[in-house]
Amino acid sequence: MSEPLTIIGSYISPYVRKVLVFLELKGIDYRIDPIPPFVGNDAFSQLSPLRRIPVLCDGDLLLNDSSVICQYLEDRYPQIPLYPADITARAQARWLEEYADVALGEAITTKLFFQLGVKPHIFGEKTDAVLVQQAREIDIPAALDYLEKQLPAEGFAFGELSIADISIASFFRVAGFVRYVIDAERWPRCAGLVARTLALPVFAKLATFEDRALRTPVPEQRAVLADMHAPLTATTCGGAPPRRGVIAID
After folding, report:
1. C-alpha to C-alpha distance for 58 and 243, rounded to whole angstroms
2. CB 4 within 8 A of CB 27
3. What are the tens digits of pLDDT across the range 115-166?
């Protein structure tokens, strides 16, 4: 029997969430070391040279970057496909994933969540109100304007659930942590797709771990998640004093 895959990265991260949804939907056995990148120790730096999450370890194989990891899981475990079969739709789904990673990642994760959640509570630094305002009033609306033209009025982006839906919804799950909600009157297609995706059982399952982690100080999160029977690794790469990496998420 093969060993479970290992994922390194916090449940709160949208990039980690993408990978965990893939693992759950494909029924792949895994263990998680649920650390934020900024508390990774020297061993973490060896596994993730840019100090990004998630990291996947599959035996001797080590992969960084959520898009690379998801494509690997799709290729290795194709029985439950999460990319469209049609080559054109597949390329379009990859583009929407990339757009979410870059545009929503910058606006929601870096400007909104990092400023409101991470800076004051982890680094003890003041929130940059200008960046928060820019994210809420300019960057996120611009991304939603674009996505509204790409998404269907009903169902998922390419018929069946795919990497595109998972990626977009994963970021707006994080936006919800800091009380940003899509205006359903202005962007009904975006609001509908995100609501449908986040209502899936796999997202609800992960949300129980996310919510507890969000309400728990970082040094205490592993113990709390263990009490919840999260599938934790036997050891951790966390525990170091908080420090920034090149980019903390991917």
Report:
1. 27
2. no
3. 998 898 888 899 999 999 999 999 999 999 999 999 999 999 999 999 999 9
Q: Which residues contact 185 (CB under 8 A, 6 or more apart)?
A: none
Token readout for 12 is 């709160």
The structure tokens listed for 1 are 């029997």
State the residue range of the domain holding 190: 87-198
Distance CA 83, CA 91 (A): 9
The predicted pLDDT at position 124 comes to 87
pTM of this structure: 0.95
Within a domain: 134: yes
Give a yes or no: residue 166 inside a domain. yes
3-state per-residue secondary structure call for 1-70: CCCCEEEECCCCCHHHHHHHHHHHHHCCCEEEECCCHHHCCHHHHHHCCCCCCCEEEECCEEEECHHHHH
